[in-house]
Specification:
- The complex is a heterodimer of chains A (360) and B (180).
- With 360 residues, chain A is α+β, with helices and mostly antiparallel strands.
- Chain A has a single domain, classed as Cytochrome-c3 Hydrogenase, chain B.
- Chain A has 15 helices and eight strands.
- Chain A has a three-stranded antiparallel sheet with strand order 1-2-3, with no helix packed on it. Chain A has a three-stranded antiparallel sheet with strand order 6-7-8. A two-stranded antiparallel sheet of chain A has the order 4-5.
- The model of chain A has no long low-confidence stretch (mean pLDDT 90).
- Chain B is an alpha/beta fold and 180 residues long.
- In chain B, the strands form two sheets. Chain B has a five-stranded mixed sheet with strand order 1-2-5-4-3.
- In chain B, a hairpin with a 2-residue loop joins β4 and β5.
- Classes of the chains: A alpha+beta (360), B alpha/beta (180).
- At the A-B interface, α8, β6, β7 and β8 of A face β3, β4, β5 and α3 of B.
- Chain A: This is Carbon monoxide-induced hydrogenase.
- Chain A: It comes from Thermanaerosceptrum fracticalcis.
- Chain A: Keywords: Iron, Magnesium, Metal-binding, Nickel, Oxidoreductase.
- Chain A: InterPro entries: ComplexI_49kDa-like, NADH_Q_OxRdtase_suD, Ni-dep_hyd_lsu, NiFe-Hase_large.
């Protein structure tokens, strides 16, 4: 059978951001893949070296909207390590709450897109409707639906009154039942299973070889959840159950994400119950000495790392970050071959790609 | 468990490079251990990658940057961030000024592929032995080593596009004038 090359992208209905795939096919079966990136590269690492340490909090939050809490969060942690700043306990809990809320919204978005790609649009709308509960919560607590601006050096910029804690508890409770229903659909519905089971296989050993992270790794049985492996903020004080699946396919990755949402609700409720009193942030403007630090966090898509070098001035000497999606792209070379052309968008979406994060 | 992997790493590193490195471990208030290692000889990085690989670790990312030496001259350094069962160990090497080359660790860790290609295009550091050393993000028209110099954003974004556009507009309007 002769081989053809199909261009997918850079713009495609199932991907909101541009990435160009040259897919080699034999008949209807994918046999090879070539990825071309760089359509929205903004040189943000270079920009970060022209802005001061405080301006970079805002800059890193503008990297992408879905993981927009993890970036300033991890960046602030790197600075705090260099300057030896201890974040007040209440601040640490509030950081976890902000992060987990973003995780729920981000994973629900991907779950919705999955339903849309397989043509189950009523499910897509149902998921997005549930997501609105989270969006409303974010807007009420932080004043914004996407960029929360929760983090600053030495703590957080928001606080929760008793009234808001009650409201948040109620919102989290109201998510539980509809979420159980959609998890049931994703796991048991015949149409969803037919499209996702055995599709886009990434075996465990390949997941390790490619160094994939987050739900992509955990869907292939690799547990490298930063929240448990190297705890930060208040994660050492609360119980986090890591969701690992062994299906290695699109379905396994989707289930991990859905279970992560349920776990995030638990984590938020634990934090709200245990929220200690006291300040939310340090009360002085710190000086940042020369030094280097790495900080890691578990973004919705997996491990995010920031490496920061300072030289005593207020401009960083080097700020480098590696986003979770960055590690997951190349694994598509393993997931794609052997699958049908019609599954291409589905497999790409199953790594929950964040192109604005990848290309910075 | 974690303590062992750090001890193993140090032992194997000593076997491989003798005294040619410095290594310290830091533990934060959450009990998370971070390692900082510096190699005297940059070519040993492949040995370090092999050690990490044998210990079941992985490469998280690689950072290249410019810094100053004692004489305030620009030097390039590369920091390799490895993961050893949750412990991040950063191994730093200095790039020799004369050759500007470093050995690729992609044959050992597939996960280093993109990040090595990126540091090559941003800092003009030649990565020797990379299986697929083509450009990753930046257009071919942008010089390699773009992070080594400050350039205007319009140029980085390849402002030639708008120039071409206006040339077309002018060409089209002048034709209209000719036709009249």
């Amino acid at each position: 059978m002769s081989t053809y090359t199909i261009p997918v992208g850079p713009l495609h209905v199932a991907l909101e951001e541009p990435m160009y795939f040259r897919v080699q096919v034999e008949g209807e079966t994918v046999v090879g893949l070539d990825i071309t990136a760089g359509f929205v590269h903004r040189g943000m690492e270079s920009l970060a070296l022209q802005r001061n340490i405080y301006q970079n909090i805002t800059l890193t939050e503008r990297l992408c909207s879905l993981c927009s809490n993890n970036h300033p969060f991890t960046y602030c942690m790197a600075i705090e390590k260099i300057a030896g700043i201890k974040v007040p306990e209440r601040g640490e809990y509030l950081r976890v709450i902000a992060d987990e809320i973003k995780r729920i919204a981000s994973n629900l978005f991907n779950a919705g897109i999955l339903a849309h790609i397989i043509g189950f649009d009523s499910l897509f709308m149902h998921v997005m409707e549930i997501r609105e509960i989270v969006q409303d919560t974010k807007e009420t607590i932080y004043g914004n639906r996407m960029d929360l601006a929760a983090n600053t050096i030495g703590g957080v910029k928001y606080n929760l009154s008793n009234e808001k804690i009650k409201y948040m508890m109620k919102q989290m409770d109201s998510l539980k039942k509809p979420l159980e229903e959609i998890v049931d659909i994703y796991m048991n519905n015949k149409l969803v299973r037919a499209r996702t089971e055995g599709v886009g296989i990434l075996p465990k050993e390949e997941a390790i070889r490619y160094g994939v992270v987050g739900p992509v790794a955990r869907g292939s049985g690799v547990n490298n959840d930063v929240r448990v492996k190297s705890p930060y903020a208040a994660y050492d004080k609360i119980k986090v159950n890591v969701n690992v699946e062994t299906g290695c396919d699109v379905r396994a990755r989707a289930i991990v994400r859905l279970r992560d949402i349920q776990e995030a609700i638990n984590i938020i409720q634990q934090c709200l119950k245990k929220l200690p009193d006291g300040p939310t942030c340090i009360d002085y403007l710190p000086e940042i000495p020369a030094g280097e630090a790495v900080a890691k966090s578990e973004a919705p898509r997996g491990e995010l790392i920031y490496y920061l070098r300072t030289n005593g001035s207020d401009i960083p000497e080097r700020l480098k970050w590696r986003v979770p999606t960055y590690m997951n792209w190349e694994a598509l070379n393993v997931m794609m071959p052997g699958n049908k052309v019609s599954d291409i968008p589905l497999i790409i979406s199953s790594i929950d790609p964040c192109i604005s994060c990848t290309e910075r | 468990m974690e303590r062992n992997i750090q001890k193993d790493f140090k032992e194997k590193l000593t076997q491989a490079v003798g005294e040619g490195f410095s290594l310290r471990w830091e533990t934060d208030s959450k009990g998370v251990v971070t390692g900082w290692c510096r190699l005297n000889d940059h070519s040993q990085i492949t040995n370090v990658a092999l050690i990490v690989s044998n210990l079941g670790g992985r490469v998280i990312t690689i950072t290249a940057y410019k810094t100053k030496d004692a004489q305030q001259r620009d030097i390039h350094e590369i920091a390799y961030h490895f993961d050893l069962d949750g412990c991040t160990c950063t191994v730093t090497i200095e790039i020799p000024r004369d050759s500007g080359k470093v050995n690729s660790i992609t044959p050992i860790f597939k996960g280093a592929d993109w990040t090595e290609r990126e540091l090559q295009e941003l800092y003009d550091i030649k990565v020797v032995g990379h299986p697929n050393p083509k450009r990753l993000f930046l257009d071919e028209t942008i010089d390699e080593g773009i992070m080594n110099k400050l350039i205007p954003l319009s140029l980085a974004m390849n402002g030639a596009t708008s120039k071409t556009l206006w040339e077309k507009v002018f060409a089209a309007t002048s034709k209209e004038v000719d036709n009249k």
